[in-house]
Amino acid sequence: MPEVQDAKVTTYKQLAQQLRVDSIRCTTEAGSGHPTSAMSAADLMAVLMAKYLRYDFAKPDLINNDRLIFSKGHACPLLYSMYKAAGAINDQELLSLRKFGSRLEGHPVPEVLPWVDVATGSLGQGLAFGVGMALSAKYLDKLFYHVWVLLGDSEMAEGSVWEALASAAHYKLNNLIAILDMNRLGQRGETALGWDSKAYAARAQAFGWHVIEISGHDYDAIDKAYQEALSISGQPIFIVAKTEKGHGFPLVANQNGWHGKPFSREQAQQAIEILGGNVGTTITVNKPEGGQQAREPKAKGEFVCPKYDAAYSTREAYGDALLELGGIYDELVVLDAEVSNSTYAEKFAKKYLDRFFEMYIAEQCMVGVATGLSNRGKKVFASTFAAFFTRAYDFIRMAAISRAHLKLCGSHAGVSIGQDGPSQMALEDLAMMRAIYGSTVLYPSDAVSAAHLVNTMAQLPNIVYMRTTREKTPILYKTDDKFPVGGSKVLRSSNKDKVTIIAAGITLHESLKAYDELQKQGIDVRVIDAYSVKPIDRATIQKAARETKTLIVVEDHWPEGGLGDAVLDAFAYSEANCAKDGQMIMLPKVVKLAVSDMPGSGTPDELLNAAGISAKQIIEAVKSV
To answer: How far is CA 374 from CA 36, 129, 587, in A?
Structure first.
């Protein structure tokens, strides 16, 4: 038995040393990167890779492959060295780290590497991604793979980590194993807790995790910890591993000032010699049993828009549409941040509780979990008050880098929510969602358009955001009307129109009130429902500009970055905007009516009027031009 044990430890050590060597080689070749952050976790990853990870690198799409997330994404030289050791990449590609056009970017990105599930590098997010994947495995797919998340000790200062710890314990995710690489040193010096393993352990235990404390350089202890982790039921597992930054090279081991600093060629050569040389150690990673390729989901029917006769809120129509879609897509999953009785996601929850996950007041965790679920092939809708997506914005940004397909719905937007006051009023959400790479931004004005657009959201890629309204609004459209993305609806027009009013949501209804009054006064205006904020309907807006010369944009949003700026983008330089002689077309006069002063509490009508976006101010704006 001792001989078998010694042989096993020798395998672990040889692999770990090669992982360190390759982490040094590729960062030195790149002239940048984080070799010391990779070196501290090499022993942990060597044991995982040699014995416990179940993954077919030739078939990364197998649905029961284990998942491995480097939440400390800056340690990716170690991850890429693991890929080389598994035979997934060759040495030439390893040495292309951080070079233009290389798949091996400075932090892992799934779009270019099939073995990377989610983009990391903004610290504090990987565990929430892991919660989403573990939820999918345990509750939705009934699969028995494990989700391994490597955490850095610096990122334990992020509140989002603790949101994920709470969520994982709540859902008893014993298929989720977090490994804390407690190497003591952050970017500028010692972390808040340093090597205080007991403090990390006590906190994780208080959150409901099964905790194991080990030395992260003791192969036998690592082996036993993983073995114990796989035996736990009813709790997620948190392994606190005391490690040494730069372990294996005395010049840098446990020394401050080496974060994100590659070795010189001379230092690299010295380190490689101390570590036993570049011997090209490889490993055969165990594969999962009975591997299956992911199946392409299929719709089980056609979406039928509910019938709406009386005034109805778009937020409730969102819930109606989710309920309808739940019977069409088995893979549709809904998350909410403890406001489902206001977003109306509760309608889905009451019928499809097995596909609804309550995230409580933890919006960062909710978007992270949604990203993990999306990676596992789920159509994920996540909802909360629009204002509270601001605190999850970095997660949304990273979800775009992950190429996640998320459907986000923000309710209670703008001053029209009334008495709750400015803390609850999203007045920047359109701007922030428009700025997300590849995003679609939708803002329906009635229940019919809202329901149809929710159905459209389910079929769209990337990040899709819908803004919904608290107040009940009149029905504007027929049940069978169509609402293509990038389109708009011209609700009032004539060949005598002097001005075009462009609005969406609550201000569209104010615009229609203004139209009725202006008609009484003999003033003809055009009214456009710009339900698709991104992409905006360039053609219709440009046509209106040519025919009426003046555009008035009315929005329940700050002036910056919202609908008004989206309309101006319709006139950004492009071939479509050029006359045949190559000259730019003349820009129309554009007047933006938006919320310009900090609102307070009041009735919706009082607040719309105070903000200068009610029918009264629209009429005044039309007359002034």
So the answer is: 32, 10, 42
Position 162 pLDDT exceeds 80: yes
Pairing of strands 147-152, 356-358: unpaired
478-482: long-range pairs with CB below 8 Å, 24+: 478/448, 479/305, 479/306, 479/307, 479/308, 479/448, 480/305, 481/448, 481/449, 481/452, 482/452
Cβ within 8 Å of residue 180, ≥6 positions away: 151, 152, 153, 156, 200, 238, 239, 240, 241
Handedness of CA 203, 207, 208, 211 (dihedral sign): negative
Closest Cα to residue 367, out of 70, 164, 143? Answer: 164
Distance CA 155, CA 208 (A): 20
| DSSP character string of 408-448 | EEEESBSGGG-TT-GGG-BSSHHHHHHTSTT-EEE--SSHH
Q: What is the pLDDT, as a whole number, of residue 468?
A: 98
CA end-to-end distance (rounded Å), the chain: 91
Interval 447-461: pLDDT, tens? 999 999 999 999 999
What angle do helix axes 159-170 and 363-375 make, rounded to 10 degrees?
A: 70
Which residues are catalytically annotated?
Answer: 363
Residue 578 pLDDT grade (very low, low, confident, very high; cuts 50, 70, 90): low
Residue with tokens 């549709």: 332
SS3 at position 269:
helix
CA atoms within 13 A on the CB side of 250: 3
Which helix (H) or strand (E) is 405 found in, with range?
none
Q: Do the strands 406-411 and 440-442 form a parallel or antiparallel pair, or are they unpaired?
A: unpaired
Q: Measured between alpha carbons, how far is 107 from 189 in angstroms, rounded to an integer? A: 22
Between helix 447-459 and helix 314-326 the angle, nearest 10°, is: 40
Q: What is the pLDDT of residues 322-377, one digit of tens each?
A: 999 999 999 999 999 999 999 999 999 999 999 999 999 999 999 999 999 999 99
Contacts of 341 (CB under 8 A, 6+ apart): none
User: Per the omega criterion (within 30 degrees of 0), is the bond before 114 cis?
Assistant: no
Pairing of strands 525-529, 489-492: antiparallel
Token pair of 374, please? 């999306």
Amino acid in the structure at residue 174:
N
Phi/psi at 503 (nearest 5 deg)?
-155, 175
Owner of token pair 């010694």: 6
616 pLDDT band, cuts 50/70/90, is very high
What is the predicted pLDDT for the residue at 2?
A: 61
Reported residue count of the chain is 625
Residues 6 or more apart in contact with residue 569 via CB below 8 angstroms = 536
Give, as one character, the DSSP assignment of residue 141: I
